[in-house]
Each structure stands twice: as structure tokens, then as C-alpha cells.
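Example (one chain per record):
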Amino acid sequence: MDEKVIALIDCNSFYASCERVFRPDLKRTPIVVLSNNDGCVVARSAEAKPHIAMGAPYFQIKKDLERLGIAVFSSNYALYGDMSERVMSVIESLVPAVEVYSIDEAFADLTGISAPFEPLGRRIRSQVLQLTGIPTGVGIASTKTLAKLANRAAKRWQRQTGGVVDICDPVKRDKLLKVTPVADVWGIGRKLTVHLHGLNIRTAWDLAQADPWVLRKQFSVVVEKTARELRGMACIEMEDAIHDKQEICSSRMFGRRLLELPPIREAVATYVHRAAEKLRAQQSVCKQIRVSIRTGMFNPQEAKYSKGVICELPFHTDDTRLLSKAALDALEYLFRPGYAYSKAEILLLGLCKRGDVSGDLFTPVPQPEADRLMSVLDQINGRWGRGTLRTGRVPIDPDWGMRREMKSPSYTTRLDQLWEVKCR
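Predicted structure:
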């Protein structure tokens, strides 16, 4: 039986790299990307990391960014999602099996492929860079936890390693474990690091040498598995399928404080529309919907209010119209005049697959044409772009939408914003 070999391919400063693909003039310019409503820093290029802290509020560091010549972008999730799909498609074409772990990283199962693995890692890195413009780091090892450590080393010592580190060799593995702080091990957080330091476990090597049964008794089975993985014993398997979500949330901060009910109705209808799209995409239906609204919670000059309610639906459904009616009825109950609202949230609960619903004689049933109508809705939006066809409550360009004053164009998802190359 072949020994397990796992690779982790992780994009470097992914959001910033996506922006840089279409702005080659920023190749050596530090970049930061802001959260919703341009609130705080959520991503930094390598050049920006020494100067700007993650999570720093934009209004506090705006002058520093200008002084340091750091380029600032509002978040452009449509662009990042599309670029992620392109990166994953390239990786999937080069390896036998892939588990997409997050928007910017994936595990690849290399078991059965003949060694050496480093040339394959370099090929993956080269192909992704050539076909998408996104730089990556590749870590290769016998377990997922070790692959994470190898990937970290590939990025940290990029010049020496060329962005690829293979620690399948036990000698290389142990050498890396001895120089890696235990805090840098996958799954070991700050609080756990403090407790491990109390046991004189300060490096990944120390954790690998600790008694796994003692770790399980003092901490958890997760820490025990981590220690075993550091020894080269695979305890965390590759996941072939993407699991369906058990809850679906759609939520955004408003671009400005809302005092009246009508614009909040528009926002709630918009969020329901998006949540229902996600629900149908995984071919599920829901039985409950939770609606909540709140004011800002940090301004001492503003009155504070926050409340939510769960609505029971008459039957399991994915019908945007029915979900919207329930949500808007709930909003009428939740809304209180005299407050400056900053956020609304929609949460779909009681999810199950369409074929798993069993009705009874006393339960209302969906209208037969609802499925066909929702199918047509999704087909049109899938072909012509999200929001092409929508319910009447959903506005085209709301004035309460998110502030994204420095948002880059949707280069890959909108025909009217395609990248232009001008020849001289």
C-alpha cells in the first residue's frame, strides 16, 4: 500500500494578488483590502504587512496609508470568487484528487504518484501563476498538518525554497518541527499555546514527542490527532465531497444608517433573494427563517436596539416569494421607529435535501409551478448575471448599499467591465 502524500497549495496574499493581476503597475506596491463598508483591513500584501496590522480600522490609518504609498481597495468578492474557481480548476487538472479547503487554499492527494514530489509542486505553482497570475506556495508531506507546516515554510523562505517545500523525508520533517513554534501549528490557538507552554511544549517538535493520550486527557482529541499527525500518522482524511451547509446566512452592514422602514424592507428582500439562491444551489429547502435587525453597537451617542425572530414556514420551501413574504412580515414586527439601523440579517434554518421531505395529510404543499418558476429565475440569472431577474422588492442600485468607494472593476464577471489592453 502506498504511503500517504498530501500537498497544500495556498495562494499568497490572495485578495491583494487578485487586485494585482489586473493592475501590473502595482507589482511592487504594497496593497491592503478593506472589509465591507470599507471598515477595516482584511488582507495585506507581503510588502504591507510590516506596516499595517490586520483588522486596523481604515479611518484611523488612512493618513498612514497615504504617507506610506500603500494602495487601498474595497473588497470585490465577485472577482475573488471567480479567480478562486480558476485557481482550483488548474490544480484539479494536475493532481488525482483535490479538497478545496477555503477560497485561497486546497489540499491535493498525491498518493500513488512516484517521487520526487518537488518537481510536481513546482509545476503546479508554475501553471497556476501562468494561467491565473496568482502566486502560490506548495507544501508537501505525509499528513495534512505537516503539509500546512511545509507550506508555511515555503512562503517564509520563498527565495531559498522557490515556494515549494517537501518534508516527506523524516530528516527534513524533524528539522522543520524543531524550528517551528508550537503556536504556528495548524489548530493551535493562542489560549492553547499558553497551556502548552506551561507543559514546556514550545515547538512543533515538542508537541510531536508528547504522549498523545496525555494530550487527549488534558486537552481534547483534536490536540491528540494534531500530535500524531506531526509524527507522520495521518489522522485527518481528505474530504472528497463538499458538505451542504446546515444554515445559510445573508447579511450586510448598510452603507449608511437607516431611520425609515421602506429602505430596510428593500435590504431584507435583497438578502432573502441571495439566501434563496444559495439554498437552491445546494438543492436544499428550509422550514424556518430568522430575521434580525440592529443598530450600531459602538457609538455612545446612538440609541441601541437589536432583535430577531424565527418564523416557521408552512412547508419546506426554496421559493423566494414565500421566503420574502415571511421575512417582511417579521420585519414589521421587529422594526421600532426612532433608531438608526446599521444591519439586517437573514438566516435560513431547518435545511434538508429536496428529496428528503416527507409530508402528511395535514401539511400544506407547495404550488406545483413554484419549482419551475424558481428554475427559470436561476437560469436567467446564471446566464445574464445575478440580479437580472428579481422580485419587485429588490432595487437595482440602492442608496443604502455597502460603501465600496475604492472597489476595482469586475474584470472577469461583467462584460461591461472587461479588462482593456490598449496597444500603442
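Caption: The chain has a mean pLDDT of 88.
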